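Support reply, case 0932

Customer input (verbatim):
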Amino acid sequence: LFLVVATTETSLELQGVIDALAVDRVLVVCLYAPPEVVAGRIAVREPDAWPGKRPLIAHARELAMSMPAIAGIDVVVDTDGHSAAEVAAQVRALLRDHDLIPGPDA
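Our regenerated output:
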């Protein structure tokens, strides 16, 4: 079992990642947050002196709206208001639900 993390902006890029894996089964999970939440996370994380900060924030807002609609995504998980541990637990549950990892009884 591999967990592969990739930021893809188009269905073609996503399909490229899936093709490169050359596996029989895959579950594509998109981690989502509203555009303003994504912008706020970047604003806090990146230094104000970095000239790429404003363009990155603008692009991230656009991606927050477009990425969940990319063809090939199986599940969108909303991360807003959830801790990393909660999101990870939700992803683990999805993997179990899709028979990609054993359930708690196994």
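We compared this against your earlier run and they match. Two observations from our side: The two ends are 16 Å apart (CA to CA). The chain has a mean pLDDT of 94. Please reopen the case if you see a mismatch on your end.
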